[in-house]
Amino acid sequence: MISNEFAIWKAALRWADEKCRQNAIECSAENRRSALGPALFKIRFPLISSEGFTRSIVPSGILIIEEFVAVYQFHCHANLRNVPGFYPMKFPWNGRISDWNKSHGNRGTLALEIKKFSKFAREKVGSFRKSEVEVFVNGLPWKIFGEITEKWMVFGIWCTARKEDGVWSCKCSSTLRIVSQKNGTEDLTRNYDRVFNNKLPCWRFTFITFTELMNPSRGLYDKNEDKVTLAIDFTVE
């Protein structure tokens, strides 16, 4: 529960930062708090350890002094938590009953449409396109990307957690697809199970040669729109 609550805080912080970037404003504590709005008061800060709260929540500057005090009093005076008026706690502290899994869950889906694909296929080795959207699955942020090697199209899965998110590890079971663009043809599908962690946050899979991918008979490349679509359904444990 506590580790999930901390993951929810990290996810909320990333979401607020993305909103600030979308609105072309500074990712300041004030703007982050404004972006979070009422969602801030859905986070169960009292369930985070006092050490974790001090090291990660306080430095963010998002909470005001009265909110800091309330959380610290919660930890210091457990016997008075239910005394009316002892301190103005704005944050819930009852346990979550899988609401994190209901709202974010351990399953995710991502798609990436690579436009001007014929041009992309001629770029230098190592060039890539990544999904603009990231999804949070089991408290971790994920993206997918397509990358060029000398002859092959590479499909990648990337957990974009930052170094300051600390040590983490998870197993990801995924179904990767290059989506069919032509009636009567099937998606090109591969299934993989891999372990991701803070030292190995990304896996690349050699999928298909560019020659085969762009072969009209495969139906994976839309010549008229000059695009290829990658998709993934995955589970994180």
Automatic annotation (TrEMBL):
Pfam families: MATH. Transmembrane segments: none annotated. Residues 114-215 form the MATH domain. InterPro entries: MATH/TRAF_dom, TRAF-like. This is MATH domain-containing protein. It comes from Heterodera trifolii.
